[in-house]
Amino acid sequence: MTRVLSLFLLSTLGLAQAADPVSFNVATGSPTGTYSVMFKNIGLICAQSAYLKERGTGGSLDNIDLLMTNQVSLAFVQSDVLKARQQIDQDPRMANIKALLPLYNEEIHVFAKPPVTSKSILGKVTVKGVQAFTDLKDKRVAAWGGSIITAKVLSAKLALPYSIVSVKDQPAAFAALNAGQVDAVLAVVGQPAAWVKGLSGVNLIPLPFSPPLEGIYTGAKLLYPNLSVSGVPTVAVQSVLVTRDFKTPDKKDRLLAYKKCAIGKLINLQEDEGMHPKWQEVTFKTWPWEEYK
Fold it and tell me: Which segment of the chain is annotated as a signal peptide (predicted)?
């Protein structure tokens, strides 16, 4: 009897597994990050997201690596990370990466400790510290995830040499800043970022838009009352949900259904209570990468 029951259960499990829809793993980021929140927002209004499983990561850099090594099927990525892999690294695998959904702009946040002012016995005033992005020349900048690539691209585009210190995450970056191990922290994150709203004892450093950044970045302004009264100029890069160029009919159908639902429900994503404010910037009309069709 026990043997018959075991065989029955195994048979039932096999049928259940066979009936399960095709599932995809989606690389997002930290549980409180914008990628994760927006992924969950789509899940609230699109039944097609039931087969998508979130995988938390360290951000864009991890996400594109996971996607290209077939460990996930979709990934939230900064478009400058995609372009760097294609144009700088010349990675042939990028030809197989397509944009499922173009999303919002992510602002570049640069943080530094307040400058220190000293006065000599002769009355000469000296200011030490970082007050403008150009002050980063020959200094140390902490970054993590996709922000590491952004820091490299900005350094090259603006011809501004500085040392990039790779760290694990945001707490590690600010620990290094507070310990004097780095002079600034560079982070790419869609505002308003909850962790930025909780900061104190640091300044936001202006990063004005300039012609060398055209084609990758756009002008933006950081608005955090806890760090600045009037806002701080910066630049932003568009994020995108990318996938591999799947040809299998069942995979393709499910991905296109998810895409169609998200685009068709944009007004809900923008107006329903509890949705991330970054949806207000999404149009699904500007594609920074080749579209998945």
Answer: 1-18
